[in-house]
Amino acid sequence: MKVKLDITIDNVFFYIICLMVLLIPPAFSNSPYFSTTAAKVILLRIGTILASILWLISFIKGYKGLKWHLVASIALVWVGLIALSVITAIHLPTAIFGSYERLDGLITAINLVAIFLLALQLEIGRAHV
Fold first, then answer.
1. d(Cα 127, Cα 129) in Å, to the nearest integer?
2. pLDDT 10s per residue in the chain (129 long)?
3. Integer angstrom CA distances of residue 64 from 71, 116, 123
4. Whether 10 contacts 124, CB under 8 Å
5. d(Cα 68, Cα 75) in Å, to the nearest integer?
6. What is the C-alpha separation between 108 and 116, in angstroms, rounded?
7. DSSP character string of 32-48
8. Dihedral pair phi/psi, residue 75, rounded to 5°
9. CA 47 to CA 38: how far, in whole Å?
10. Read out DSSP for 61-110?
């Protein structure tokens, strides 16, 4: 039996988002010294960058329009407020990158909103369910 793989940019984009959803939630623990936290944060960053690049290529190749939702606007306002707090922060590196115990810096907020916005752009149909 021959299995045909449908490898397109949209499918790879979909699978990267799915892998990030499945692999990253176990990343964070209550213990700040949990050894896999750094590796999973790197996975979050690399996955977001790859998904963004693939979505951008797909967007340029065939303009499908942007999907938008009210929650996306709220998420962008949230990142804007965090950026404003970075400007007024006492310790700029901690505000941007977060601390070792808490990775809640501006970069993490941008990452999370980027994943949300990318997930909004997915073409999900019966074949993906």
1. 6
2. 565 556 677 778 888 888 887 777 655 555 555 566 677 778 888 888 888 888 888 888 876 777 788 888 999 999 999 999 999 999 999 899 887 767 788 998 998 899 888 888 876 655 554
3. 20, 18, 10
4. no
5. 11
6. 12
7. TT-TTHHHHHHHHHHHH
8. -65, -40
9. 14
10. HS-------HHHHHHHHHHHHHHHHHHT-SSHHHHHH--SS---SHHHHH
Length of the chain: 129
Radius of gyration of the chain from Cα atoms?
Answer: 17
Tally the C-alpha atoms within 13 A of residue 53's C-alpha that lie toward its C-beta: 6
Amino acid letter for position 46 = I
- Tokens at residue 18, please? 């799915």
Where do we find the tokens 């959803």? 21
Token pair 């400007």: residue: 87
Separation of first and last alpha carbons in the chain: 23
Q: Where do the domains of the chain lie?
A: 9-120
- At 75, is the secondary structure helix, strand, or coil? helix
